[in-house]
Design a protein that fits this description.
Helices cover 52% and strands 6% of the residues. The chain contains 6 helices and 2 strands. The two termini are 30 Å apart.
Amino acid sequence: MTNQLPAPSPFRRLAAIVYDCFLLFAILFVASLIPALLLSPEIMSNNAANNSVVHELNSPLEGAWYRVYLLSLIVAFYSWFWRKSGQTLGMQAWRIKLESSDGGKPSWGQCLIRLAVAVPALGLAGLGYWWIWIDKNGLAWHDRASNTRLRALAKSSKK
C-alpha cells in the first residue's frame, strides 16, 4: 500500500493513553459510586455517628466480583470504541486511529488480544510500548500480537 498513513510518534501514543486514563478514571469512579450507594445507603444519611470524612464501603465492593465488574468495564470501553470507529476519545484528540493490518476495523478478537497483551507491555516498565523504536514497522507488542496498527491522521482543514 503506497498511501499508508504514518505510525504516530511515541509522544502522541502516550498522550492519548493519558487522556483515555482520565476518562476511564471518571467512568470507573461513577461505576463504583453506584453500587456503593446501593449497597451502603447509610453513607448518604446525615447523623452524628456518620459525621466523618472517610466512610467504609460495603464488603461486596472489595471482592473478586467487583474486580471482574471493573475489568469488564475497561474491556468494554476500549473494545467498543475500537470496533465502532477505531478511536477512543484520547485517540481522537491526538489524531490516532487503530486499524486491522488489512486497513479495516479491528475485530472483537483483535481488540481482546490487544488489551490482553497491552497490560504486560505496559507493566514491564513499558517495554512493549518502547519496542516501537526497535521494530522496523514501528509496532508495539500488542500491535504485533493482535495484527493491528496505529496510524497518525492528518490535521483536517477547517472551512
